[in-house]
Design brief:
Thioredoxin, GMP Synthetase, Chain A, domain 3, FSCA_dom_sf, iron-sulfur cluster binding, NIF_FeS_clus_asmbl_NifU_C, globular
């Protein structure tokens, strides 16, 4: 499984259910191998939420980085 596939899987199975409970979701945009950074789009209620950046850092990034060692950071696209 590629790193991109792993990221998509974690977003779908672990991140999306939590965000969906608040009317939001995030989608995979790209993975930059040289910087080990995954880029995601915060959408739905998360797209306009003033706390979206905090959610990205505290929930999305923490979940993805802990599940996939080759990912070092998650940024908003």
């Amino acid at each position: 499984m590629t790193t991109e596939e792993k990221i998509k899987d974690v977003l779908k199975s672990q991140v999306s259910p939590a965000l969906a409970s608040h009317g939001g979701f995030c989608t995979f945009v790209k993975f930059d191998e040289p910087t080990a950074t995954a880029y995601v789009a915060m959408e739905g209620a998360c797209g306009s939420c003033p706390f979206a950046l905090e959610t990205l850092r505290m929930m999305v990034e923490e979940t993805v980085v802990s599940a996939i060692p080759e990912v070092k950071a998650v940024e908003r696209a």
